[in-house]
Amino acid sequence: METAFLAGTLLTAILLVVFLIMKLHIQAFISLVIACFYVGFVTSMPLLDICKSIEAGMGGTLGFLATVLGFGSVLGKMLEISGGAERLARTLIHKFGERKSHWAMMVVGLITGIPVFFQVGFVLLIPLVISVARATGLSIVAIGVPIGISLQVVHCMLPPHPSAMAIVSTLH
Questions:
Q1: At what angle do helices 63-82 and 28-42 cross, to 10 degrees?
Q2: Terminal CA-to-CA distance of the chain, rounded, Å?
Q3: Stated pTM of the model
């Protein structure tokens, strides 16, 4: 292909990313993936080659994990913004009772930890820990430790989780 055409495609892809983020308020990772597909389609790449190119560009072995992590972070943020995690916590606390709210928080950590890495899940759930601790009168530690432990268990051992998948991929 002609150099000018490729340079123009690159420029329009950059403008597309800026437009998607600034005007449509689409998350940056998703905007970059959309721009990758745009470049692939404009340069007449087959769809399968576009996907392979995105994976190779993200780092080969860890390419599919970067995609899972990126979309998992988006899902985790959606849980936080929508109030889904807090609603889940409130429902479970109601079921378990306030005296056993630490068990409810453990279940919340297990469920919300599936799509995100430990650090992302912990940062997303800190506001929930504080609000539940205030509502129940328990200490932040009594609520936070079960969430931290359950997030760590999911992070280390649950197969669909990105870190467990990295281990499986590395060990074939």
A1: 130
A2: 38
A3: 0.50
